[in-house]
């Protein structure tokens, strides 16, 4: 009989497994810490469990991690990109970005993407499948002890491959594990979920009570331009998306980040800047302008630095926080919108 992967259980399922066998609850806490805080890859290494318990569990369970097939390091800024091969041959990428006193880890939620935004290489891959919760958490575990030992503040952003709100149940389960004090003990305000604009998903995410931060990829100030750039996501009107984002911010008392990919001659005009400012004026928002990162075959261009600065300056008087995200790791295709993978052959 094939053994089951202990990390495929949610933490409540793990607790039930232990208590249903008549074992004391502290055994659950010990195992959870080994699995997620210490990140061990075998039951044999859980040295504070009795040998008989390790054997009992070992007859049914094993621990499988995701394998890092490739790690690339940017010569420009030290960003690292990891390629994880999944058990069915599919693959996803995650990106670790160092900054002065913190680390940001950008995670994927789908292989490919359910959406079709024309500027994004993941969108151009098409949709392959949703990741399971253990495949989401599994992107952090091999790095977790390394990061934690650096004692840097770590933020997680769901801005890798996929549309997180189209894989909401797995996303929520993964976040609950990551936020559990026995596991990674991250608070919700260190996790950001970015969506291209899944209206029902924004509401459902709010209802989970997780309290994670929200980012909304607006990317346009008119319905026409949005429909051209993000045909599927643009089915929801801008006004409704912004209302949902506002609702989310008010519920959790933290600003929603509005992402705006800046594309030359498409959404970078003076009028766009003024409209963007007007749309967001006085609202609970931060604006994050992302100069377009080129990808093959899109036919799109990035504005030059001066145009980016001018755009940001025009928006700024209307919104208290406007930042420009000069993407990291462009030399290893790790920047926003550059992640894509192929299936293993053979
Ligand atoms: N599907 C979610 C999560 C992906 S986040 C979402 O759309 O929000 C990826 C972010 O990078 C989004 O804000 C997206 O608009 C932006 N992006 C995608 N392709 C890009 C590119 N080529 N250059 C710059 N930003 C890009």
Give a written overview of the molecule.
With 346 residues, this protein is an alpha/beta fold. It folds into two domains: 4-62, DNA polymerase, domain 1 (Orthogonal Bundle); 67-332, Aldolase class I (TIM Barrel), CATH 3.20.20. Helices cover 34% and strands 20% of the residues. The strands form three sheets. It has a ten-stranded mixed beta sheet. Strands 1-2 form a two-stranded parallel sheet. Strand 9 (153-158), helix 7 (168-179) and strand 10 (191-195) form a beta-alpha-beta unit. Helix 8 (199-208) packs parallel to helix 10 (238-252) and helix 11 (270-280) runs parallel beside helix 12 (305-315). It starts with a strand and ends in a 22-residue tail after the last strand. 43% of the residues are buried. The mean pLDDT is 95. The structure holds S-adenosyl-L-homocysteine (SAH). S-adenosyl-L-homocysteine binds at residues 119-120, 159, 163, 194-196, 217, 219, 259, 261, 290, 292-293, 295, 336-337.
Give the SSE string: EHHHEEEEEEHEHHEHEHEHHEHEHE
The termini sit apart by 25 Å
Total helical elements: 12
Average pLDDT number: 95
Please state the overall shape, judged from the principal axes of the Cα atoms: elongated
Largest sheet: 10 strands, mixed
CATH homology group of the largest domain: Aldolase class I
Taking Cα atoms only, what radius of gyration do you get, to the nearest Å? Answer: 21 Å
What fold name goes in the CATH topology slot of the largest domain? TIM Barrel
Measured as a percent range, the helix fraction is: 25-40%
Q: Give the beta-strand count.
A: 14
Computed structural class: alpha/beta
Task: Record the strand order, biggest sheet.
Answer: 3-4-5-6-9-10-11-12-13-14
Proper CATH architecture of the largest domain: Alpha-Beta Barrel
Number of domains: 2
Bound molecules: S-adenosyl-L-homocysteine
What fraction strand? 15-25%
